[in-house]
Amino acid sequence: MSVLVFGHRNPDTDAICSALAYADLLQRTTRPDALAACCGPPNQRTEYVLRRAGVAAPRLVMDVRPQVEDVCRREVVTASFGEAFHEAYERMRKFDLRAIPVVDGDRRVVGVLSVLTMMELFFTDAADSTKARAVTTSLQKICDALGGSFRNAVDPGRQDELLVMVGAMSAEGFTERMRNYPSNRMIVVCGDRPSIQLPAIDQGVRAVVITGGFPLAAEVVEIAKAKGVSVISSPFDTVNTTLRIKSSQFIDPVVDRDVVTLPGKWTVAEARGIVEKSPQPVFPVVGDDERLVGLVFKTDIINPPRPQLVLVDHNELAQAVSGADEAEIVEVLDHHRLGGGLKSRQPIRFVNEPVGSTCTLVARQYRAAGIVPEPGIALCMASGIISDTLHLRSPTTTDVDRESLAWLQGLCQVDLDQYVREFFEIGSALRSSTPAEVIREDCKEFNEHGVRFSISQIEETGFDLFWERKDELRAALEEYADRQRLDFSALLVTDVVSNGSLLLLSRESQAWEDVNYPRLDRGLYALKNVVSRKKQLLPLVSQLLASGQA
């Protein structure tokens, strides 16, 4: 199972680019199976980065909880109606299986066949001599089970309920016993005994099976042809021949047709409740068209393998991909505060440092490993640093960010100054997105002092578009807070030219009137020199909540 490298929900450029770059580094060092993933599509600015870098977007995965199709065995041994016991059993024995699905001609599941129920074909009602002798099969299936050959074949493919009689007694006693059963349903098993063969043929039995590989006299074969009696030569002795005839029976009567199938798109958690209560030994997995796609055992569903995740640019489960709480988190690489909810069953590698960008940490790991990234990956990392530090002008910027960007600049093969201008000009969320999309573009949820809220952040070149859309953005914030059941939602609009921001709130308390920033309108504040959500705005909000003012 691959390890998935994930940024946070509603990913920004740093989250996408750090996931791509770190997955590339892992592939080249310790985890060749590493894959970059994201739990939300890239925004327009990030799409521009990927296009310029020539790098494919991460795999879009909205939920990492394993589905049934993720844990099922794709190479499935099956059976079909009309097959004989020995055919199905040999297949099951070869693959060490105790049960297999039964499918029709369109590969739709019609039942389950288990070794336990197959034994019913051998152990029938011994008190009823007719039932004990009965086998539902065809002469062709009998011949195949014996590995024998026909000396005379009359309608060998016809399905019959036949009665097996062993000619191991005196000729007189055998002839007398034959009168107790309908001759056209009888199969007589005997060795080189003409005194048994001839009366059976004369009686018009369905077939005579000659054991031990003994030859049958040509004149006896001619009599059998005249009487319409099939003759089969078996290489086995009488006991083993009789057992193999039993094994030629059709499996149809013992197939469990009341079968539980599992849709492949179900989560393992959804399937677990059904599987735990069912006595069924195996569970066929079906696609949307109801055709068989795989097979699972109870242990596959009750104790499935947990997906492995590397988290970049976040360390809180509230910001992670859905299902992360059921996954195995093997590593964290982040530059934010420590959040809540993250647990591990064993020690993991956890890198959390106060730098301006997660891409800075990834770049440093490339340098420590002595690996030079490809130009496209270098441009991705440079873009993450440029985005999160507002091209090194954010108060979150450190010397490590500056050194990393300088190193990457020599590897990008682009004019980075020109690229930065294009980067901030393209993909204005206020110009190209709906209000709801603006709120979700880089949105993170927090829980401080029992208060749940979200802060979204976008970067613009000026506030002109904001003033045009202020009212609809406020309505979108209010709707988002109601839908997510948050106490309030906020949007931080940062002007990368003036290095200041506007803060719009879905709801404000009276405490906001005491904040040392100008109130411009209902729920709207001008935050001069505030550009960082994590280092400037979040501590301010947390302080208000701690004092019980917000």
Keywords:
single chain; 550 residues; alpha/beta; inorganic pyrophosphatase (n-terminal core); CBS-domain; Udp-n-acetylmuramoylalanyl-d-glutamate--2,6- Diaminopimelate Ligase, Chain: A, domain 1; 4 domains; 6-stranded parallel sheet; 6-stranded mixed sheet; 21 helices; 23 strands
What this model shows, in words?
- With 550 residues, the protein is α/β, with parallel strands linked by helices.
- It contains 21 helices and 23 strands.
- Strand 10, helix 10 and strand 11 form a beta-alpha-beta unit.
- The model has no long low-confidence stretch (mean pLDDT 90).
- The strands form 5 sheets. The protein has a 6-stranded parallel beta sheet.
- Helix 2 runs antiparallel to helix 15.
